[in-house]
Amino acid sequence: MQGLPENQIVGSILDAIAEQRLPAGTKLGEQALSDLFGCNRANVRRALATLAAQHVVELRPNRGAYVMTPSPKEARDVFQARRAIERTIAREAAGRATAGDIDFLRRNITDEARAKASGDKPAELRASRDFHMRIAQIANNEVLHRFLSELTMRSTLILGLYSQHGSSSCAKDEHARIVDALEHSDKEALVALTDRHLRHLEADLNFDARPRSPMTLEDRLSLSRDPAQTE
Ligand SMILES: [Zn+2]
Fold it and tell me: Is the pLDDT of residue 77 over 90?
């Protein structure tokens, strides 16, 4: 399955969205994608339909596909859904984390801090998302894991659009406290810390800010021929 052209396109676009290389509103031209990936337009259309089903791409009649631009209402809905799901995940994860999980999460916090210090935004965003997804994995519920995967992707778009401080990643000390609670199987603390962490992320959103202007697809997929033209 992974080798199919449409799966490669889906994977590349999701990676680019997760790292904020493809911000909300970017046009995803069928011809451009088929040229970039060396596949036919039927593959591209299937990929775009898959991404639309995950609510990260919007198909506009007669205009084509665009990276979804979540409205303020959608942004609030996504964070409310994340709180509901991640509280349940926290409850399930408490008491299940292995020493390997705790090691992974502590290394992840260090990696994220290092990426942030060196200004490596894509690595910082990747680490931040990996942290939340690892806890979902510990909770061992595939359905919640899949929901959270979609919601964290949509969160990245939302944070890219509305985050006041241009920061899209998570506070380091909050992650550290979450790992402490997980390590001590402190279910109540884990749920409370998770909830508070997500409320902090949401509180940083400013819906009065002018959305940042999108760039072209070629540039965002790091395949640009002439970035100067598109900046
Ligand atoms: Zn976080």
Answer: yes
